[in-house]
Amino acid sequence: QVQLVESGGGSVQAGGSLRLSCAAFIRTFSSYAMGWFRQAPGKEREFVAAISESGGGTADTHSVKGRFTISRDNAKNTVYLQMNSLKPEDTAVYYCAVKGNQGFFEAARYYGYWGQGTQVTVSS
Asked: Which pLDDT score is estimated for 85?
């Protein structure tokens, strides 16, 4: 059984930082690419960032480039999202997910397992 547990969310002022963690209870964690998505109230879930199995390749969406960094520690079965220079528009529930072997990083339908989400609130 696969379980993903996110942590590190909270409330910060604009310009602040947060580091999200996602502990993955999954066999052979290092065999899977991982992703972070977010969903704001009244909006669809959107791609934030993804990282390859080894951590050597990453991708992120335009709105977070230069501010967010995805990383992973395969020894700890954990993926991270370092978020700097936060903006009010970053307010959302953030989810980590395990990607399947096929499909695009940006498409949620290619991710098979999801965490419960962690709330990030950025005030102006």
From this structure: 98
